[in-house]
Amino acid sequence: MGARKSKPSGVLDEAWRIFDWGQKEVLKDRLEKFTLSNPDVTKIKILVAGQIGAGKSSFINSVLSVFQGEIVNEALADTSSSGACRSFTKRLRAYRIRSADADLPYEFCDIKGLEPEKISECQPDDIVKTIYGHVKEGYKFEEKSLTSDDDHYIQNPSLSDQAFCVVYVIDANTIHLAADDKIITEKLKLIRQAISDKGIPQVIVMTKVDEACPLVNNDLKMVYRSEKIKKKMELCSAKVGVPVSHIFPVKNYHNEINTNDVVDVLILKALDQIVRSANARLRRGASNK
Fold this sequence. Notes:
Layout: H1 24-32, E1 44-50, H2 56-68, E2 93-99, E3 102-110, H3 122-131, E4 163-171, H4 179-196, E5 202-207, H5 209-212, H6 214-218, H7 227-240, E6 247-249, H8 261-284
Parallel strand pairs: 1-3, 1-4, 4-5, 5-6
Antiparallel strand pairs: 2-3
Helix pairs in contact: 1-8, 2-8, 3-4
């Protein structure tokens, strides 16, 4: 009899989250046919926030790529090491999601990344104003917070101006107890505290899981059997305050030249939860009331 193969270190006996790896087309079809709960709103905004370098813009590009069936780089992302301490995104920019030639009824709003500097009210304050629809597209995020006297300030935002879900993009490699990580999570907590009483849903997209775990790097389908990724998601939940059920591990497209079904299905599952959460909030009315 041959010797039994030993289980690799860090592999859980069973997947800790049930996940159907063959649901890509079902999810894609459902998202393409999605209708909003309010007929007066043609699209819902989803705000994408997070630390610099975590892959905010890359996540947006990855979502666009899934629906186009090819790699898309519409949201510019900085891949140089020189930009490691400063956000590449400077202005508020909206990205409408398209499938073939049709616009889907939701869009992502990309904002300046949270930088690892001392905690200040400025960054979280501008993000909260953006969520409530007070910031026009094209606004350049400055050191000082936007005021009602600024040309980019919307005094009476419509439902279409507001964001109905906030997505925090967090790099799986940075979920630890370092000082920079603490500052970022404290900034996310400030945002979370400011909007939680308004019932605005919040979802975490945990990027770079392939870089954070060799097991997952070798086989992305092992993401829910990786003990390391499970612990990172639990720690992320404890530090930011978002339930694990609203945390989704993904791999963004980075150096690929073709899309991949396994990458796509993780992205689509995260997007499906984001869109459904946003639509449920839209059903309840204005987010800034």
